[in-house]
Amino acid sequence: MPVELRLPFFDELSRAETVLLAGAGGGADVFAALPLYFQLRAAGKRVHLASLSFAPIFSSTGRVIAPALVEVTAETQSDASYFPELQLARWLGMLDRAPVYCFDRTGAAPLRRAYETLVSLHRPDAVVLVDGGTDSLMRGDESGLGTPEEDAASLTAVHSLDVATKILVCVGFGVDAYHGVSHADVLEAVADLAASGDYLGAWSLLPDTPEVRAYRGAVEFAFQGGIRPSIVNASILSAIEGRFGDYHATARTRGSELFINPLMSLCWAFRLDGVARRNLYLDRIRDTESHFDLRLEIERFRMELPRVRARRALPM
Asked: Residue 136, Cβ neighbours under 10 Å: how many?
């Protein structure tokens, strides 16, 4: 009798009918969520896309839903030079006209309230937060945290939600080295989460699957639309197509040394509450009202640490 092999991640989502799929920060993370978006839709689930945005969302014509939440569609107009969510909404407009919900770049408290509004609107059974990179797994005392502000705000906001299933997915192992993350620390985080029962498995994005072809199409559409290319998504797509080493898909990375590798094409999944419990400073940022306050609290936490753990390299 054939045995069905399934990852715990897909088992966690098997009973969910409606899923909120959100980019953790910066606009480009929501593109890294697209392979999963199309996989879940193919499985018959209703999926809504959201993104913590770097764009001036309130200067657009998008519908304001809450003080830190704007709905962007293919018809939304904006003069912003960087608005990846709008480019994504226009690309989706050629398929099914799905909106992209944009969270303002703010403190953790307004972001939490915006998430609560969106959850009240769509009643999802599951929220899946997607990080383009792996720095969301840093607990706070590592030598390098990457760019933690948006990821941490998203993590604490989703952690607080009254939703049955909450998951973090990381795509792009290795891309955070540019921002000082040691990937020995990333692998330690995965090991800790496996030990606590919060690791839900990993799977590869493969080039000839419908969801990856759609992901590539959306990224290329956004690049051609005039926004600066996303280093994270360019790196992930380079890894998917089999590039290796110091390969540069965009001129934005020229002058730096890259290490494109097959691990960048893996999706790593975790129970989000387990990741939040492992983090050492989420309690300190939970009530921050502005992005400035958020950054300040993380900096204060780092200054008050008795020591920062020594940087470790992966053994060769």
From this structure: 31
Q: In this structure, are residues 148 and 181 in contact, taking their beta carbons and an 8 Å threshold?
A: no
Amino acid at the residue 7: L
Are the CB atoms for 103 and 51 separated by under 8 Å? Answer: yes
The two three-digit tokens of residue 198, written as one number: 């919060």
Quickly count: other Cβ atoms within 10 Å of residue 236's Cβ.
32
Instruction: Give the closest residue to 295 by CA, choosing from 115, 58, 96, 25.
Output: 25
Q: Is 250 exposed, middle or buried (0-12, 13-18, 19+ CB in 10 A)?
A: middle
Quickly count: other Cβ atoms within 10 Å of residue 286's Cβ.
18
Query: What does the block give as tokens for 24?
Result: 């953790």
Quick one: pLDDT at residue 1? Answer: 47
What integer pLDDT is reported at residue 293 of this predicted model?
A: 98
CATH topology for the 13-229+265-304 domain: Rossmann fold (3.40.50)
Any idea where the domains of the chain sit in the sequence?
13-229+265-304
**Tens-digit pLDDT profile for residues 136-158:** 999 999 999 999 999 999 999 99
